């Protein structure tokens, strides 16, 4: 079982994908949506419109007991299981045809302990919701570079983000997790209870169970960070990349830099005649003192086209 969910199982046909949900409705506290019911089409969609999967059932969990019930139901009826967290799912893993989509987006609880610099977050949170809670205490951890992504997919996939040069991947900051295994059992995992499973969760994808809560290490960040995209015409890519190769190796750890090649977006700091033209961009984020960051980033701003 993984977030991707198998698209089909060997020997399965559509006739196996229509089990009755009567008993499940009696045990399941959250919403259950089937094809043709109001809200089904909205619930089954993921952010990437290239994927248009149609599960036979969308199970919107109201708690961990619902997660257990849905997993056991999918197993008993030999159905593929996919897990939808934030719904970003750039690879389409949040849904699968002819299976059960387990939707965690209703699990939103988060608690922050500023004394120990830790947070416990339910599996349905997005990074913007998580950051809002931690930034009230001037804390953060490495998260997705897009705020609408769910914490589950990012964490279990490793977790590239703007803070990773200083604080490591998201998975490096995972200190524990609550999960439901493929047989429907609940487990708490940390370095003391099951270090090998914790190791697997740190970047191993959703192969080990459905995580209903994550525990993270936090770090002092903000409330202000210095950052923003810088673009050049695509013809200047060799010059920009040579600069980055020489600059990045010795750059201080508070500086993270991403690279993009894209069509110029309609941003107000770009000339209108550049909109839609090919550009290369650097995305610097400095999570230290802003004044020091301006000094560190000065050479980047001097790259001329």
List keywords for this structure.
305 residues, alpha+beta, five-stranded antiparallel β-sheet, 9 helices, 24% helix, disordered N terminus
How does this model look, in words?
By secondary structure, this protein is an alpha+beta fold. The protein has helices spanning 22-27, 40-44, 64-76, 127-135, 151-156, 164-167, 195-201, 237-248, 290-301; strands spanning 31-33, 57-60, 81-84, 100-103, 110-113, 118-122, 139-140, 174-180, 186-190, 210-217, 219-220, 226-227, 230-233, 255-263, 278-286. A five-stranded antiparallel sheet has the order 5-6-10-8-9. Strands 1-2-4-3 form a four-stranded mixed sheet. Strands 12, 13, 14 and 15 form a four-stranded antiparallel sheet that branches. A hairpin with a 5-residue loop joins strand 8 (174-180) and strand 9 (186-190). The longest helix has 13 residues, at 64-76. The protein is globular, with a radius of gyration of 22 Å. 37% of the residues are buried. Residues 1-17 have low confidence and may be disordered.
